[in-house]
């Protein structure tokens, strides 16, 4: 990286720390930034710092938001008795994009992973259990279909069942449009186990 | 994009303006930035603004650098009589990485393109011609092997030849390790025309 002057090299190094940005992309990005109008660059860095300054956890559901209570928790039209538990804010957005879910969320910010040393105390579980002391009818566990997501789902189920609140898990199976030929065996077996009557 | 709060949406929008960063990557980047330590985020935005503030054209070769004269033009070990003309600073870096070129450079910051309305006056040609009034033995034209790059090479050749300075063009042909079967016909013909005696 000695092919550029110090400040350009420093910029490329900082950019290449970002996820999904290799050395080549970082170089392309750096020169793009250097060629951008000053005002546009300042708007970009300003947006980063402003988001960083204002974004926090929602007091109720722990999603990342720039107000004390996120827009979903604030909305009077959402069903506060139905809580969907997700691993992060992007998973929440994925369900919001469907436009069909009318309950609220709880964002764990992670999943239990003994391998990575992430235990129940490291995710927003305590905050979820506190919410369950209110008027909640159902907890829909929508953690990922990975080892960590499944472990978290099992843990949540054991923790919540004694309270009498209904705990459900989103279905696991063949994605819509998926070709059976290309689906892994574990998913195929899950789809078989989870079959429903037509 | 209404699935996130205002400041997060603003951040994602700014990031998705960058080249090669689509909506999905912008979302991933935004949440990565929000989860980064404050100090790291400030170092990143600082590097952008600092590079933007200090980087300018080298007084001699027009490459992007943070000093008045770039490190290559400053170096006493480089042969100032041999000038390689490239389209941009990244192309300069590509040749520097070979570690075998000992001359200096001239960065045009573009190439002549009648289709895009980019004429000789829009690139750093005047600056090159001024340098040729000094003690220059050879100009190596290393513009890209595209229509614009070739047009620029032809133009340069016509402009420089009357001065008596030697003008050369980097070879065009089959890339090392390239499989003839997958090389386009124009390149194959170029390689044939440019054949050398063994």
Notes on the structure:
2 copies of one chain form a homodimer. The first copy, chain A, is of the alpha/beta class. In chain A, 43% of the residues lie in helices and 13% in strands. Chain A has helices at residues 6-16, 23-35, 38-54, 71-74, 89-98, 125-131, 147-160, 185-193; strands spanning 56-57, 64-65, 79-86, 103-107, 138-141, 166-169. Chain A has a 4-stranded parallel sheet. A two-stranded antiparallel ribbon of chain A has the order 1-2. In chain A, helix 1 (6-16) crosses helix 2. The first copy, chain A, starts with 5 loop residues before the first helix and ends in a 5-residue tail after the last helix. The model of chain A has no long low-confidence stretch (mean pLDDT 92). The interface between A and B is large, with 53 and 52 residues.
What is the fold's blueprint, element by element?
The structure is a homodimer of 198-residue chains.
Chain A: H1 6-16, H2 23-35, H3 38-54, E1 56-57, E2 64-65, H4 71-74, E3 79-86, H5 89-98, E4 103-107, H6 125-131, E5 138-141, H7 147-160, E6 166-169, H8 185-193
Parallel strand pairs in A: 3-4, 3-5, 5-6
Antiparallel strand pairs in A: 1-2
Helix pairs in contact in A: 1-2
């Amino acid at each position: 990286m000695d092919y550029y002057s110090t400040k350009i090299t420093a910029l490329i190094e900082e950019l290449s720390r970002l996820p999904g940005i290799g050395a080549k992309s970082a170089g392309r990005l750096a020169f793009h930034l250097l060629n951008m109008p000053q005002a546009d660059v300042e708007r970009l860095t300003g947006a980063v710092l402003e988001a960083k300054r204002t974004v926090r956890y929602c007091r109720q559901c722990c999603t990342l938001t720039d107000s004390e209570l996120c827009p979903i928790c604030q909305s009077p039209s959402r069903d506060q008795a139905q809580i969907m538990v997700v691993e992060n804010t992007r998973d929440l957005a994925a369900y919001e994009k469907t436009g069909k879910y009318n309950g609220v969320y709880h964002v764990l910010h992670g999943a239990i992973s003994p391998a990575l040393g992430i235990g129940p105390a490291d995710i927003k579980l305590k905050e979820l259990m506190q919410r369950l002391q209110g008027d909640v009818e159902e907890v829909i566990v929508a953690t990922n279909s990975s080892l960590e997501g499944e472990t978290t789902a099992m843990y949540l189920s054991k923790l919540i069942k004694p309270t009498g609140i209904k705990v459900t898990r989103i279905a696991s199976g063949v994605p819509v449009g998926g070709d059976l030929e290309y689906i892994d065996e574990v998913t195929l077996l899950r789809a078989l186990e989870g079959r429903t009557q037509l």
